[in-house]
Every structure is written in C-alpha cells, then in structure tokens.
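Reviewer 2 asked us to include a model.

Predict the structure of this chain.
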Amino acid sequence: MEAGGEMVIQLPGHSGSPGSGETVVLRHKEVHHFFFVPFREQPIYSTRAHVFQIDPSTKKNWVPTSKHAVTVSYFYDSTRNVYRIISLDGTKAIINSTITPNMTFTKTSQKFGQWADSRANTVYGLGFSSERHLTKFADKFAEYKEAARLAKEKSLEKMDLASSPSQESAPGEIQSPLTPESVNGTGDDAAMSPQDVPTPITESLPEPLPITQSFTHSPTITKHWEAELAALKGNNAKLTAALLESTANVKQWKQQLAAYQEEAERLHKRVTELECMSGQTNVIKSQKTELNQTIEELESALKAKEEEIERLKEEVDRTKEIQEQKDALAQKLQETDLRNKELEGQLSALEQRLDNSQVEQETFRKDLKTLLEILDGKIFELTELRDNLAKLIESSS
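Predicted model (structure tokens):
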C-alpha cells in the first residue's frame, strides 16, 4: 500500500486477528534497508499456496489473508540456528512463524494443511494446488522441526555449560530478504473458494507465560531476555539509521536538483546574452555553419539509409518472386508426379492385360493343338475305315 511517496508495511501481530499487527511506514528508498538488513537469513525452500488464518472470534472458520496464491518460504538463520516460515502479500507480511519443536503440521485434506503458532496466538492454513506440493511442504516442516529441536538442545547445553544467552529470534522481527516483486502472484492464480477449504482442526493454544514469571525463573532466562532486548534495540537502531540516511540522501538529492536547475537557468541566460552581443556574431555564424554541415551530413546519411532500404525492399520483392516461382514449380512438379503415378497405373494395367492376353493365347494354342491331335486321330481312323471298305469291296467282287 502506497500513499504520498511512502510505502506502508504491516507486520503480523500477536493478537490473533489476521488484520492486526504493527504498522511501519517506509519511503521507497528505505524499502531496500527494511528487507535486506541484515543478510544473515536465507531462503532454503519456497512454494506457492493460498494463505488462511483461523477466525479469532469463532476459532472454527478460516479467514483468507491473500487474494491469490503467494510464495511461502522456509528461511534459515545460520547464526542463531532458527527456522522460520515467511510469506508476503504485496508489502504485507501475512506469515511470520518461527518453527519450534512442539509445533505440528496437520494435513486436513489432500491439498490443505495447518499448524498452530502459540507465539502469534493463531492457526495458519495453507491451500496447495496439488497433493504433491502439500506433501513436500509437510516433509520440509518435519525436517526443519527436527533440526530446530536439535538446535534447541545444543543451545540449552551451551547455556547450561557457559551460561550464555540464546539467540532465539523474536516473533515480530522481520529480516526476510524477500521483496514484494519476487513473492507476489501475477494475477493468474485464482483464489480458493470457501468450499475448497476444509474445516480447521481446533487446537488449544497455550497461553503465554507472564513476563514476571519468565524473568524470575532463573538468571539464565533473565540474561536471555536481556540479550533479546539488546538485539531488538540494535535492530531498531539500524532501522533508525537507515531512515536518517535515506532522509539525508533525499535532502541532498533535492539540493543537487535545485543546483542543477539554477545552473541550467544561468546557462540559458548566458546563451541569450551571447546571442545579443555583437562581438559573438562570428562565433554564432560558425556554429550555425557547423550545425548546417552536420545537418547535411545527417541528411546524406539518411538518404543513404533510404537507398539501402529501397535496395533491401527490391531484394525482398525479388525474393518473393523467386519464392512464387519456386512454389509454382513445386506445384507443377507435384502435378507431374501425380501424372506419372497415373501413367504408371495405366502401364501396370496394360501390362496386366498383356499378361492375361498372353496366358489366353497360350491356352488357346494348347486347346488348338489338342484339337488338331484329335482331328489327326479321326482322320487316321477314317483313312483306316476307307481302306477297310475298299478291301471289303474288292473281296466281295
């Protein structure tokens, strides 16, 4: 949210309501300091999901905190061994949850999961686009939860041995190197409908211990909170220094701009005075001559460019004509191929007919030969019959 050249960033508070939180007003030049100081926290896993928080009044319904799917990232602070889940919607931090060993991520459906944050006194819900993304996020949650448990055990051991304060992060502190441009959706992600969000699993959130009880528990805890207070004061001092530095830079830039404007006006007046002075006529003429020569050179260069453009146009036209001829030849070649195929078909048919005719002629020859053989046999029989009749006639006479 921007107003009057300033950017309003709202951090999630501890009252449990999605809209509540601490409001910080930064100018455009100070956003860099807010998101990038210090650099000790780095993202280790990111995904996209719709973000919800439980209704603080009913503790039964989900309240969407983002209009579309946003980037939800795990961050790791190597100097303090702290894992956090952070998500920004525009310039508003809608999730800032430090992972502790007693947290549990619960899958309530195939695409929805939730966890309770006792420090923020709320329950966060995430709606994913697929079951695979939900499973991956849950596995990372379990992995970083175990790492947080081991880190806490090591920290407690060091506190017991050296009585040194732990460096656990304050829940309201934002040190994310995420920028609004890198985590915002493009508008293509449609918001989840209320029917897609399962009923939240109500979990009893532990009440925060009184401050007096925490400080009177032991000297070690007292030192721990003193260190936390010192860290918060240091961060506040850094932010204050960044604000002062950016304010000083803006003032300096305004002064430089005013100086440049004054210098421009002075030069303009000086040019006017030089034009009015008669002694500078030759200089002005020479400058005009040089300007005219420059204009002529530019006109000649422009003319050369125009000629080159015309030449390129002619080459393009020739190329088009060649392409048209190529297309015509390709069409003729295709027609010739089709004609050849037709002729080949006709030739095959004629060859088939010739083969059939040859077979028929061969059959006819065989039949004719058989008929001639039969006829020869009949003629031979008739000849024998004639001889026998002649013999019979001769014998009877």
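Confidence is low (pLDDT under 50) at residues 1-39, 164-188, 203-217. The helical segments are 31-36, 131-162, 180-183, 211-215, 219-276, 281-396. We have added this to the supplementary material.
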